[in-house]
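Repro:
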Amino acid sequence: MMRSLFTGASGMAGQQFRIDVVSNNLANVNTAGFKGSSAEFSDLLYQQLRTAGGTSATGTQWPTPLQVGLGVKAVGTTIDLRSGSPIESGQPLDMMIMGEGFFRINANGQTAYTRDGTFRRDTNGSVVTNQGFLLDPPITIPADATGVTITQDGTVLVTINNDDSAQEPVGTIELVRFSNPQGLRSIGNNLFTATDATGEEIVGTPGSEGFGMILQGSYENSNVSVVDQLVQLIVSQRAFEANSKSVQTSDDMLQVAVNLKR
């Protein structure tokens, strides 16, 4: 019965962890470039009361083991890297990566990566995120520019004095990908940082070498499906209730056993 108490408690902790992950996904259902996560679990150690293949007291061989598991534990969170739906904004600096890749960001000296393509211009004309972090490599839009065009291969062109025939290049958008993007670490502000598990960054031009192309005037919405998350939430809630019931039942049975000795 003590095993049941431990198993049920670990099950409740596991389902609480899953609910926390689902809740974060639902909270960011409208966050630009957000990638949903899913909780991954593993069973714990097993208490071996009898091994398969052993010999019984009568000389026969046991065909199956006699073992009982000790619950579950969370072992990781997997990032859903599928693209979100495009949101057309009409803003000239909004960009969506149609395919694989991340924008590189200079977050106050720290290299970070994002799929959030809602960029703006600061007072110096530099292209920045909504938090004011610089796009890397930096791109500056001249103060007298009257229009901005971003091609599918990431070339940034500006129009001066409304003369479309005299567009000038001011920089090129670079994209980054990793051999193991699941190893990226979320740090908030729609940003990821690399870890030892991601491998070295691979830099390339949009539309080449497996990188996605740039779509100007749109940005990528969250890839979270509200319906799927609500289903997971209901399943986790029912599993939590079932595990709590098993803890209560084990406690009641233990109480009965204790009362027998009185």
